Amino acid sequence: MALRDYHLTLRDVSDQQPEYLETVFSLGNGHFGVRANDPISGNPIAGTLINGFYETAPITYGEAGIGYAKQHQTILNLPDLRHIHVSTSSGHQFTHSKRTAADLDLGTGELMEHYQISTDQGETIMMGVKSVIGQEQTSMWSAQYTFTAGNYAGGLLVSKSIAVPAEAEAIMSADPRKTRMAGLPICETEFVTQDLQRYHVKTRLTKQAVTMYLGILLPHGQLLQQPLDLSDEQPHSLEYAVYVGTVGKHNTIDPAAMFMASSLASLTDDSRTFWQGVWTRSEVSVGGNDELDLAIHYNIFQLNQAAGRDGRTNISAKGLSGAGYEGHYFWDTEMYMLPYFTYTNQQMARQLLVYRYQTLPKARDRARALGVDQGALFAWRTINGEEASAYFPAGTAQYHIDADIAYAVGKYFEITRDLDFVIQCGFEMVLETARFWENFGSWRQVGDDCRFEFHTVTGPDEYTALVNNNYYTNRLAKHNFELVVELAHQMMKRSPQLLSKFGMSETDLDVYQNLADHVYLPYSEELEINEQDDSFLDKPRWPAEKSTPDNFPLLLHYHPLTIYRYQVAKQADTLLADYLFPEDLSADQLKREYRYYEGVTTHDSSLSRSIFSILAARMGDSEKAYRYFMDTARMDLVNLQKNTADGLHLANLGGSWLALVAGFSGFYVQDEVVHFANHLPTELSRLTYRMKIAESVLEIDLTADNLDVTVISGPIPTYGVSVNGELISLVKVS
């Protein structure tokens, strides 16, 4: 499969509002992100985001309770690195601008834009901005500004500096997805030389610090004033570079070395090499729909830009494209985004799991705060590992995050056989979450049936809170118990003494297996479907007259207690478990459950449609599979949720990849067999993609009546491979 040339332009997006374009054309590298703000008008509330750089503020409750989250954690909006001051030689400021073109090269990471800028006096010139962010050199960003005469062709004065941010007006909104302000940090700035500015920023409460340097590369001169003359009617360019230091580390740089490493040409080479590696491992080609093909490449591009790579940071709900959801990390990572990395870039997947391991001590503290004496409870929404959800019914009560993280550890090991990671980090997380379930749950005798149950929980469906025996939660907890046993046996193959390292014996494994065998999974005999929870099916359905477009999302129009009274789901819940454990139910039961839960789901969450697409594909309903997939794949490019201005929907981006791979090609792994099945919808003529299984890069190619799997690099894997239910022998392409 040849790597194609992909560019996202203004013609490929549905909205031309500045805040929306800032998000869609943002650049990032896991360490920091730069929104594509208008360099002339700028944006006082959003410019640069550093992954994990945040401030706290006390959460104010009208009636607080024991164990409530105590502090907000909010990612800081740092100064806009793109902003530039331009004036005529007579002092007229260019304060008006119009973006006339934008081109994001998904193969190299370069962003090229054109603006017409003007003064109040009507003088106009053209400005081009070419920018790139380092991918291996993750501290660097560089931009070239090119000025061309318009109806004004005289002298220009151009200046650039990192400005101390002004106090921005707080955004007052009941919408939790919106950007929030965290107050001003402590800022110090100085000019080390006439062409190098040092900017140091420190948070007031978290005591985090980071240092930036801004330098002018070409031509050498002064940051604060660079004269140009457009009278020759030739383009004139200035090139700047920014160094963004590591949070918490003292960063002192050699300006000459920085200039050499951070030129636009150098960073472009760095970025091009990185993206070539990404597409070699995870290229996707969708035949029959060029818009869809571009959208999938864009989604994968942004996933890679957003993921923390250092083991200290993760992927926030909006990535590094915006400050929506305050920059928090959720379960979204493990269930929607991590699978892409697990099957294409296992080192990245490992680092994202290492972040969770780093927060394990705080997860243990959180379990104690909730009255569970053993085990660990990971924070529902967090940056530093502490719980930051101010609304526990739809936050902390989503205990399933423990089992989600354990599930992700299991999938990582299943595909990598990285036993060293299991011994060093993974098993402890799986064990501590299992200990939480063991002490959180309770036994109950119902007739001859002895059940292990979980009460007062909230599942993925945030419109149904504080219920007993949420099916998804119970099914994942069951898997958590089983995974302890499985991973323990894997470690014991290396050394029987390894269990004692964790204070365990083989008798303990029998306890966890017994718990797994007795976890209660609610089932409706009448409807012959898995019940979302003990009470969901007993509630009245959401009134049809309230199901109008003006009333969605429901959470912004109705009190939570109003919503909780009804049988209405925000997103896939029981169906999400059906996707994760396809072996659990027959094709007929899946169809019954899908039909039922589709009828009560609003898809108010961006996490929902990808799961509905996957399951529709598995059922052979290609029309629904394709329809849900289109909403998933192009969600941000068409601004489907109407809030892309606050950042991309990163979990949905991961979900779009899952819908292709797990849906249209039926991919899943079970008992060391990699399964594929052809569910390609008629709207697509071909689907080809790459994934990594152990040390082997596979290419999967689907057409209407064929599915081929070949090895394009690495050894032929020891895993079995099943296509449409039959084991096949793999062929390696020379």
What would you say about this model in short?
The chain is α+β, with helices and mostly antiparallel strands and 734 residues long. It contains 18 helices and 30 strands. Helices cover 31% and strands 23% of the residues.
Cα end-to-end separation: 13 Å
Biggest sheet, strands in spatial order? 1-8-9-10-11-17-15-14-13
Low-confidence stretches: none
Strand content range = 15-25%
Beta strands, count: 30
Tell the overall outline. Answer: globular
As a whole number of angstroms, the C-alpha radius of gyration is 26 Å
- Whole-number mean pLDDT: 93
List keywords for this structure.
734 residues; alpha+beta; 9-stranded antiparallel beta sheet; 5-stranded mixed beta sheet; 18 helices; 30 strands; 23% strand; globular; 6-hairpin_glycosidase_sf
Write structural notes for this entry.
With 734 residues, this protein is of the alpha+beta class. It is 31% helix and 23% strand. The strands form 8 sheets. It has a 9-stranded antiparallel sheet with strand order 1-8-9-10-11-17-15-14-13. It has a 5-stranded mixed sheet with strand order 18-25-26-27-30. It has a 4-stranded mixed sheet with strand order 23-24-28-29, with no helix packed on it. Helix 4 crosses helix 18, helix 16 packs antiparallel against helix 17 and helix 16 (609-619) runs parallel beside helix 18 (650-664). It is globular. The chain starts with 6 loop residues before the first strand and ends with a strand.
How is the secondary structure organized here?
Elements: E1 7-9, H1 18-24, E2 27-28, E3 32-34, E4 48-50, E5 54-58, E6 71-75, E7 85-88, E8 94-105, E9 111-119, E10 124-133, E11 140-149, E12 155-159, E13 186-193, E14 196-202, E15 209-218, E16 226-229, E17 236-244, H2 255-261, H3 264-282, E18 284-287, H4 290-306, H5 332-342, H6 346-358, H7 360-369, H8 400-416, H9 419-440, E19 442-446, E20 449-453, H10 471-494, H11 498-501, H12 506-518, E21 523-524, E22 529-530, H13 560-564, H14 574-580, H15 587-598, H16 609-619, H17 622-633, H18 650-664, E23 668-670, E24 673-676, E25 686-693, E26 696-703, E27 706-713, E28 720-723, E29 726-728, E30 731-732
